[in-house]
Amino acid sequence: MNRNQQPKIKVCGLTQLNQIHELISMETDFLGFIFYEKSPRYVLDRLSLEEISKISHPGKTGVFVNEAIKKITDIVKKAGLKLIQLHGDESEDFIIELKQKLHSDVTIIKVIRIGNNDNETRERIKYTLNSYCSMVNYFLFDTDGKAFGGTGKQFDWTLLNEFDIPLPYFLSGGISEKNIDNISLLNQKPFAVDINSKFELEPGDKDLEKIRKLYRKSPKGTI
Ligand SMILES: O=C(O)c1ccccc1NCC(=O)[C@H](O)[C@H](O)COP(=O)(O)O
């Protein structure tokens, strides 16, 4: 697989140091840590902020769901995060205030959760793309669900072909070795793919052999 021509890879929901170091040696581009207490992948149940801070990697990403600004900025500082993934319903005002309190080199990913393929969803996607594009660095499209993320379900990717996406984006939501080739059907290719529950033995315990296989495979037509 020619990694230069393929979308980058983010592995999300990491909780085990040995797996994290293995993923770093495989040149994984983004490492996702979930700081949402209700997630079965809540990282602080398994690793301390100090342990996360000692992981040296430029793609350390913290996932937050409707979290208080003070808590996010404290965690970013203590864990040495490089990117923040806002996975809840954070408003534009919230992001403006958050950015004022963060170091300017922290990258922000705004998540757009997609449920039904209907006009209400289309309107919400359109609104979010337009109103957040000047304040964040990337968008991430994920499947909507009660748990906010980690649903293991794919949304209707053809919806994305209806929009001019103004920023590079991460594609997420139930990505597996079975559906990843369908990226070829997207007009605007993702900057990165985000894999999680389809590459796990159980929540937070990654199936490294399956991830290795993905790295060896070349998703058809993704370039
Ligand atoms: O994974 C979780 O448990 C989770 C819970 C709440 C918010 C976000 C969460 N995950 C964030 C991610 O970036 C996941 O990779 C993304 O939701 C896709 O997960 P999956 O559908 O399991 O591939």
Automatic annotation (TrEMBL):
The keyword rRNA-binding does not apply. It catalyses: N-(5-phospho-beta-D-ribosyl)anthranilate = 1-(2-carboxyphenylamino)-1-deoxy-D-ribulose 5-phosphate. The keyword Transmembrane does not apply. Residues 10-215 form the N-(5'phosphoribosyl) anthranilate isomerase (PRAI) domain. Keywords: Amino-acid biosynthesis, Aromatic amino acid biosynthesis, Isomerase, Tryptophan biosynthesis. Gene3D superfamilies: Aldolase class I (3.20.20.70). It comes from the Bacteria. Pathway: Amino-acid biosynthesis; L-tryptophan biosynthesis; L-tryptophan from chorismate: step 3/5. This is N-(5'-phosphoribosyl)anthranilate isomerase.
